[in-house]
Amino acid sequence: MDTWGRMELVGRPPTEEIVTEDEMHELLGSEAHPRHYIGLEISGFLHLGSLVSTGYKVNDLAKAGVDCTIFLADWHTMINDKLGGDMDRIARVADYYRRAFGAVCPTAEIITGTDLYDEHPEYWTELVRFTMHMPLARTMRALTIMGRSEDAEKLDLGKLIYPAMQAVDIHFLDVDIAHAGMDQRRIHMLVREIYPKMGWKVPVALHQRLLPGLSRPADSSAPAKMSKSDPGSGIFMHDTSDEVRSKIRKAWCEEKNTKNNPLLEIARQIIFHENKTMEVERPEKFGGNASYAGYAELEAAFGSGDLHPSDLKSSVARYVVPLVEGLADKASPGEEIRGIMGSRG
């Protein structure tokens, strides 16, 4: 595969941004197997966004010859008070994540923060050195990566270590491509700013579009992402087929509105990722069956009113239900994990 073919794989949806594309092109043109990482908190039930959309992007990178690593950030999960900050509970839920991502991304290496820090005892010394380049105000602004506000009165000191740890993880994993959702962009910009001061290799940053939640967005300019902690906002890997259909049927899908439409985004990131066309079945009186050869055609048909929300919903369900059913054995948490995480994780 030539460099442009590799770039096409790396840049296809759900990729939103590459910082920078020139650097990525140079990397793929010079390295047969560059190293990649994506880090995840172990903080809730896996859904279409956190597992499938993320996993599909990892698989794109793997097809492009990239050595991929999924980093299960157990220490970060503890610092962020997820799962009660209990490392035993976190480790057991990490096994569920490892099993699920292993099913979707069979070629990726999956490691935990504990694995990395045990292998590199010098990590902690370098972490302290890194923090000496981080102004406190910049650290406070970076707290949004962990879903926290900048309100100092509500923070313990441990929270301030989180952004620096996430940045230093990338160095110790020897990463060429740092991959995350758009909500993690700040940390990658911090990495690109401070790494040269440390004399460390600066990675290319790849940011993917987040899969929006199924509910009507409170802010149309910034829709809420599909959330692991909100059962109504997402399609979870342990949902039954009837639950998946019900959630899609109730999803926000305003007629002719293509902006931040969660079902269109599922089509873009999930359905068209694995299918060249998307088939819509409907009665002749409503236009008859239709076939869309790519996301742009589907979006145009919906935006013009040629495709009604109810037909989009039923079509999305026909693709998503078998996908969730097919992953159920490996990607469902099981009763023990459900008990550990509770209804909200």
Automatic annotation (TrEMBL):
One of its GO terms (cellular component) is cytoplasm. It is an enzyme of class 6 (ligase). Pfam families: tRNA-synt_1b. One of its GO terms (biological process) is tyrosyl-tRNA aminoacylation. Its EC number is 6.1.1.1. The keyword Ligase applies. Residues 216-238 are annotated as: Disordered. InterPro entries: aa-tRNA-synth_Ic (IPR002305), Rossmann-like_a/b/a_fold (IPR014729), Tyr-tRNA-ligase_arc/euk-type (IPR023617), Tyr-tRNA_synthase (IPR050489). GO terms for molecular function: ATP binding; tyrosine-tRNA ligase activity. Keywords: Aminoacyl-tRNA synthetase, ATP-binding, Ligase, Nucleotide-binding, Protein biosynthesis. It catalyses: tRNA(Tyr) + L-tyrosine + ATP = L-tyrosyl-tRNA(Tyr) + AMP + diphosphate + H(+). The keyword Ribosomal protein does not apply. NCBIfam families: PRK08560.1. Belongs to the class-I aminoacyl-tRNA synthetase family. This is tyrosine--tRNA ligase. It comes from Cenarchaeum symbiosum (strain A). The lineage of its organism: Archaea, Nitrososphaerota, Candidatus Cenarchaeales, Candidatus Cenarchaeaceae, Candidatus Cenarchaeum.
